[in-house]
What does this fold into?
Amino acid sequence: MRLTCAGAVLLISSLTVALADDKKDDPSQIGNRDVGKGFNCYSIDKEIAMGKQLAGEVQRQAKLMDDPIVTEYVNRVGQNLARNSDAKVPFTFQVIDDPSLNAFALPGGFIFVHTGLLTAAETEAEMASAVAHEIAHVAARHMTRQACRAQVANIATLPLILLGGWGGYAVRQAASAVIPMTFLSFSRGYEAEADYLGLQYLYAAGYDPTAAIDMFEKMMSLEKRKPGSIAKVFATHPMNDDRLKKTQAEIQKILPQKAEYVVDTSEYAEVRARLLALENQRKLRSTQKDSNGPVLRRSPGSGAPATPGDDSGDDRPTIKRRDLVE
Ligand SMILES: [Zn+2]
It folds into this structure.
């Protein structure tokens, strides 16, 4: 009798697991599935409190963007994705003024996006795909689950280790001597899960899910062209063809095609243009600083037209204008 009961219990629990897994493949069930389940030594409240403490640390050490047009916009896009996710915690989205391509999540719903992500992503959907991935880490409670696995007593006593990306390299290098490497980046299983859930959130929020693939491609080519331009934490996300192909297959398999998707918005174009202009201004200023002397010496004698190439370029529009007048 007892054996049968145990058998029945086992059967029921494996059925529950199977049902829970099926739900995980069904974007229409988002919000009704417990994706953060699994052994966790922290309560949700404790997780949020730790995240808040760490976020304070980030705010003190990183240079936060204060342009309200940029920050309000990123927060709005983030909140919309979070509403379409399985996460049960309130979210905050903040922008760090840093040209490296990065975004990261702290436990309990604190997400930071680098300006470098916004300038690299060419459409709102591409940017949203990276943010959705970070929301998925929060929804699935990856940070605390990993900390429990690594038997870390209190994440908040290990600030910056989970993060990196904005120049806390010395801190992280020192920390990596004592903290096992497994704690510095998520396991491949967690990364794959964040890709999988993030893709569904992107889709549920109305975006074209293939933007996630475009973003992967962008990151791969950027890293090839300019190694080091992707912040270390992002680089530890295994960025390879497998990840890309897996996402492609998942789009085919679990996301029913919609008639319309959001790819880009004029608002994103405006925000991105603002950031690119800021970046250019900075580049200009630093090159002026570098070549200060020679430029000053040359300019008094340069009253003559610059280069023949420029001249011919100037002529053409003038002719056109005459033509128009006639
Ligand atoms: Zn990740």
